[in-house]
Specification:
With 334 residues, this protein is mainly beta. The chain has no helices and 27 strands. It has one domain (2-331): Beta-galactosidase, Chain A, domain 5 (Distorted Sandwich), CATH 2.70.98.10. Pfam families: Aldose_epim.
Length: 334
């Protein structure tokens, strides 16, 4: 079912499509191809943060549930070199760095509603050559599907007519128990290393061991034990390359529910939503405060174009970029 969700300031209509199956129901809006709401039968709250109206997505709700790119996360100083060509990219993070593809990145654009049925919806976007400083005109298609399990799967396809950088991520904030914070959530991520960052969250260089740090989630860890400590907004290093088939990269548990996150991507940005402060009412009628959700962003490592030893984000002309991210839900875990 497709319906109008709201109208952007320039008059564009933002559409919403709700898909369902196997006890799971998801609503996706064309703004950012965003997962706006996710509900499981028998659970009285959405499993992701979101808003019932469009307006918050233009401000405090920016990136909530969005498909971000063409380069997710950060590129230092908005600079990169590609085949000897020095690129100056959009610097939308404090005027210093590129974040999520720039101020007009895919997570803030109104995608085209391409196709949908009861259990699947596909949205498309086109980025012209030179968009936000990147070479290559790029076509992108993001498909959200509900499968037996229940499973919510996101498949992202992209092609370019010139060599470019390509790195997408889904940016949902998960909250499985409906509480005000994620303190009682338990997170596990099979990553032995992470990327240390500077004050602007730009990687400093080589990965470092997670052991003995606040970023060690190799065993299930209650997030409340970590929320009062150093900021959690880091890339956990899962592999040194992308994979064809998704592999499990995280498990999140709370309120008798468990979500296994699987992905083809070599990194997982874990962010505990420190920036949130009460504003517009979200799902359930209450505003979101600090640590109301946790983002688990499957991705190529941040600033990879500036680090030869990081997994490559290079996309050759005519080649197909394909990312698969799978969210599998199970009930009543111990």
């Amino acid at each position: 079912m497709a319906s109008e969700f709201g109208t952007l300031p320039d008059g564009q209509r933002v559409m919403q499509v709700t898909i369902s199956g196997h006890g799971l129901r998801a609503s996706i809006i064309t703004l950012g191809a965003s997962l706006q709401e996710l509900r499981l039968d028998g659970i009285g709250h959405s499993l992701v943060l979101g808003f019932p109206r469009l307006e918050p997505y233009l401000d405090e709700g920016r990136y909530f549930g969005a498909v971000v790119g063409r380069y997710a996360n950060r590129i230092a100083h908005g600079r990169a070199v590609l085949d000897g060509q020095k690129l100056q990219l959009d610097r939308n993070q404090d005027g210093r760095h590129m974040l999520h593809g720039g101020h007009d990145g895919c997570g803030t654009r109104n995608w085209i509603l391409a196709d949908w049925d009861k259990s699947s919806v596909a949205m498309a976007d086109h980025l012209p050559a030179g968009h936000m400083g990147f070479p290559g005109a790029m076509l992108i298609r993001a498909t959200w599907s509900i499968l037996p399990g229940p499973v919510l799967m996101l498949t992202i396809l992209a092609t370019s007519d010139d060599t470019t950088f390509c790195n997408f991520a889904q940016h949902s904030y998960f909250n499985l128990d409906g509480s005000d914070t994620i303190a009682d959530h338990r997170l596990s991520v099979p990553a032995a290393t992470y990327l240390p960052v500077d004050d602007d969250l730009i990687p400093l260089g080589a990965p470092a061991p997670v052991q003995g740090t606040h970023l060690d989630f190799q065993n299930p860890t209650r997030l409340g034990e970590r929320l009062g400590g150093p900021r959690i907004d880091h890339n956990l290093c899962l592999s040194d390359q992308r994979h064809v088939l998704p592999r499990k990269v995280a498990t999140l548990q709370a309120g008798g529910l468990s979500m296994d996150l699987s992905s083809t991507e070599p990194g997982l940005q874990v962010y505990t939503a420190e920036h949130l402060s009460p504003g517009a009412p979200g799902h359930g009628g209450r505003p979101y405060d600090r640590h109301a959700g946790v983002a688990l962003e499957s991705q190529i490592w941040p600033d990879a174009p500036n680090h030869a030893d990081y997994p490559s984000a290079r996309l050759e002309p005519g080649r197909l970029y394909r990312q698969t991210t799978v969210m599998s839900f199970r009930g009543r875990v111990a």
